[in-house]
């Protein structure tokens, strides 16, 4: 498994490959059922500047991409467990990317 993340608010980019993926990232990936999601969510017209959280996960040669536009606004305007799960996962990714 390989994961990369772009965190919009801090322009962080990180890329990990097994076995170097941080444990908390793997735990969050499993706990939040992130592999159940794919594609784009949110609305790029909801804010300026547009914020994009983006992760690509390579599992057995298949790339799964998740982009979440304007996560804070989307989370505030949507009462959805799916959005809360993605929010929590991206929080973990941002923290791991900042630690390098």
Total domain count? 1
The helical percent reads: 25-40%
**Strand and helix order:** EEHEEEHH
Give the C-alpha Rg. 13 Å
**Count of DSSP-assigned helices:** 3
Query: What would the average pLDDT be, to the nearest integer?
Result: 85
Shape: globular
Hey, roughly how much beta strand do the residues contain?
A: 25-35%
Describe the structure.
This protein has 100 residues and is α+β, with helices and mostly antiparallel strands. It has one domain. The protein contains three helices and five strands; from the N terminus they run ββαβββαα. The protein has helices spanning 23-31, 71-77, 81-99; strands at 2-7, 12-17, 39-42, 52-59, 62-69. Strands 2-1-4-5-3 form a five-stranded mixed sheet. Helix 1 (23-31) packs antiparallel against helix 3. The chain is globular and about 35 Å long. The two termini are 18 Å apart.
Key words describing this protein structure:
35% helix; disordered N terminus; 3 helices; 32% strand; alpha+beta
Short description:
The chain is of the alpha+beta class and 100 residues long. It has helices at 23-31, 71-77, 81-99; strands at 2-7, 12-17, 39-42, 52-59, 62-69.
Question: Helix and strand layout, with pairings?
Answer:
Layout: E1 2-7, E2 12-17, H1 23-31, E3 39-42, E4 52-59, E5 62-69, H2 71-77, H3 81-99
Parallel strand pairs: 3-5
Antiparallel strand pairs: 1-2, 1-4, 4-5
Helix pairs in contact: 1-3
